[in-house]
Amino acid sequence: MTLPTRPVEFVNPRAANEFKARTCSIRSVGSYLPEKVLTNEAITKLVDTSDEWITSRTGIKERRIAAEDEFTSDLAANAARDAMKKGGITAEEIDLIIVATITPDMLFPSTACLVQQIIGAKNAAAFDLEAACSGFVYALEIGQQFIMSQTYNTVLVIGAEKLSTIIDWEDRNTCVLFGDGAGAAILQNIPNSHGLLTATMGADGSKGELLCMPAGGSKIPASGDSLKNRLHYLRMDGKETFKNAVNAMCSAAREVLQRCQIDISQVDHIIPHQANQRIISAVGDRLKAKEEQLFINLDKYGNTSAASVAIALDEAATSGRLKRGDIILIVVFGAGLTWGAAVIEW
Ligand code: ACO
Fold first, then answer.
1. Predicted confidence (pLDDT) per residue in 229-256, tens digit
2. Distance, first Cα to last Cα, the chain
3. CA of 235 to the centre of ligand 1 (A)
4. Mutate-to-test residue for ligand 1 from 175, 239, 337, highest number of ligand atoms within 8 A of CB
5. What is the pLDDT of residue 11?
6. Ligand 1 atom closest to Cα of 43?
7. 213 with 331, same domain?
8. Whether this model's pTM surpasses 0.90
9. Are residues 188 and 206 in the same domain?
10. 134 lines ligand 1 (CB under 6 A)
């Protein structure tokens, strides 16, 4: 896959004196995982599969499932509250809320508006962003634009999914892969601080059919037929998705590293989209990364789409793995097709 190139900004993140201008810092991160754990063993009661198959093909051991009365907006709001608490930010300080999700509570109003109401961020504008598993990196880059342009001081970026509601629990090809959860980050300009150095986003709409939910929109509105044909569930061509994921993630990672003029060996942590252990290993191998650079938590949560790298970033930060000044490479891939990567100096 050939990625469109953009003008290259030559920024060396290790050279602090080149950082004269405004920066987009990550003030804090947070996450929320629903309590209910669904193990591989439990899935063998639903479809013809085994813990051995799921583990060897994906690396996933268990995933979280939200309660019936717990919606994407609730998961998102809990992750936001966690980030606000860790960053010492009040709801009134938030200027903008961006929620990346493919499982909004409803088509409208946006989940971001629902979150605004739940957390009491009455001064914030709010909108949703749909870029599937790439959503959090898309949201980070968009949030960064508002910080750098001085339009807003505080942007709350959330990736949140209740994927369990769009999974066909009779389809063993897909139901073993996904889980529910949310992650959040608060972006601000913090003088003389570190932050998001660069990010890239990409898309290829010609391959949209590889991973989609056919019904529920204007093309196939809900009807008896759409329900009978199970069109309100996620569908995926796993093999093709796999190949495209590896290619796009490697190209996106190389693009942002080149822009920052850093070599993969200078990256302290790589946080890849947590879809499949084999995709992560293939990307790591091609980028010539060492295993210890890769952050992996998909064994516990499966693929949480837009929430995936946000949850991982919070887990890495909370566990003390991230040290100030560390270079983090986030790289994602999702339906659309979409992809993206970001370099952060922590
Ligand atoms: N248990 C047991 N057998 C299964 C299961 C299961 N859960 N699922 C599929 N199989 C069977 C298939 O039916 C097939 O059987 P057959 O040969 O008799 O037809 C066999 O296992 C092999 O299937 P493959 O599709 O060849 O398995 P593969 O090695 O490709 O792994 C997988 C499948 C895990 C889905 C892989 O292709 C993958 O991870 N793809 C990428 C998926 C992904 O990352 N999606 C998310 C993208 S991000 C987003 O936007 C949501």
1. 999 999 999 999 999 999 999 999 999 9
2. 31
3. 12
4. 239
5. 52
6. 7
7. yes
8. yes
9. no
10. no
